[in-house]
Amino acid sequence: MRRTFFCIDGHTAGNPVRLVAGAAPLLKGASMSERRQDFLARFDWIRTGLCFEPRGHDMMSGGFLYPPTRKDTDIGILFIETSGCLPMCGHGTIGIVTFGLEHGLIQPAEPGLLRVEVPAGVIEIRYEQKGDKVTAVRITNVPSYVAAAGIVVDIEGIGTLSVDVAYGGNYYAIIEPQGDYRGLDDLGAARLVELSGRVRTAVREVFEPVHPLDPTIRGVSHVLWADAPKGDGADGRNAVFYGDKAIDRSPCGTGTSARLAHLAAQGRLSPGDRFVHESYIGSRFTGRVEATTSLGDLPAIIPSIEGSAIATGFNTIWIDDADRFWEGFQV
Ligand code: PYC
């Protein structure tokens, strides 16, 4: 049997986005969070087939558009990525919304504004369009908060680190320069990948964050190495690790949201403050602390992130069970 997926490929600030515009499976569930669980249980081969080698690579991510389950939203997004189906993905949303608008797959009721249902909740999008090009997308993201501070882990190859855990749509282990972590330029990408895997395992052994309103969102999935900015006009730099081998080429939307919550909790940012975040390759998102709020009993912020995406082409991909690697593979 062969299944054909019509995709629009591109990138947001350098990180890949594959919008799967055809052949989205029909999902069960009364919310995008429930549909995410259904997809993982019954259709995960689509994710691995489209994201893993030989059709994808270590950084591959993207998503499907769905009719939303809520009347107060315009569209739903289900994210796919090498590590699973993320509750929320910032660079993915910027790419999916850009390609969807540019190719007529999203028809907004009010130009410039969209409310989008994602597994992590409802986000608001404001975008700018010039002719047929979407030039900027700003996401007002889900409430973001610090789940733990000062978790001490001993990591082979870099020693003792104090790690904080913050949520911005996914849970991040955040590491500021300290001890033998002197900054990103001190560690090459290969070392970052190796150390990040160890950090994530060590943190998972001692702490499992659980989202106060949706217990299906749990556990540290990403590692964010924070650093001082490199370029003029930026406020910070990061390298975000996800999956098993990926360093985000973008400044990472949910990572930037988690970092904003982290800096706000430490009194280093206040509502209204902007924070220009540079990625490992020097691309940028503009973050902002929009407001303070609460999540369950916990203090939280509403962050926004702004960036842009570029479509690079159409890609019609087959998954054929005559292919030994129909489900994809990772090495
Ligand atoms: O932009 O939120 C993001 C993201 C998550 C994983 C990779 N990028």
UniProtKB/TrEMBL annotation:
Gene3D superfamilies: Diaminopimelate Epimerase, Chain A, domain 1. Belongs to the proline racemase family. It comes from Sphingomonas gellani. This is 4-hydroxyproline epimerase. SUPFAM superfamilies: Diaminopimelate epimerase-like. It comes from the Bacteria. PANTHER family: TRANS-3-HYDROXY-L-PROLINE DEHYDRATASE. InterPro entries: Pro_racemase_fam (IPR008794). It holds the Pfam family Pro_racemase.
